[in-house]
What we know:
With 107 residues, the protein is mainly α. It has one domain (13-102): Non-ribosomal Peptide Synthetase Peptidyl Carrier Protein, Chain A (Orthogonal Bundle), CATH 1.10.1200. 48% of the residues lie in helices and 0% in strands. The protein has four helices and no strands. The protein has helices at 13-30, 52-68, 78-81, 91-102. α1 (13-30) packs across α2 (52-68) and α1 (13-30) packs across α4. The longest helix is centred in the first third of the chain and has 18 residues, at 13-30. It is globular, with a radius of gyration of 13 Å.
Amino acid sequence: MLSKNGKDKFMNKAKVIEILVEAVNDYFDTQDIKSKATEYTALFGSGSELDSMGIVNVIVDIEARFLDEDIEVSLTSESAMSRKNSPFRTIQTLADFIIEQLGAENE
Length: 107
């Protein structure tokens, strides 16, 4: 995988999940939501603490966090939106999508 500046950059699944959990927990904190995110936290659909604006805010924050790591991801791409099973179901499924998008191996 190459970072946006063309340098080799590897990110394993554990690090991706860590970034996602932090982003969701930060959003929960700003909204005074008492839940704590884990890799199994629902992002969309039944059981989710996020409303439509919440998921948008979290997606933007996640993309920014990856840019801070010098990695460009697009979570609103056609490939994400056109899937039969949404990658936004849980933090785990979103991490799988990001790893797939980055071309890194799941660990």
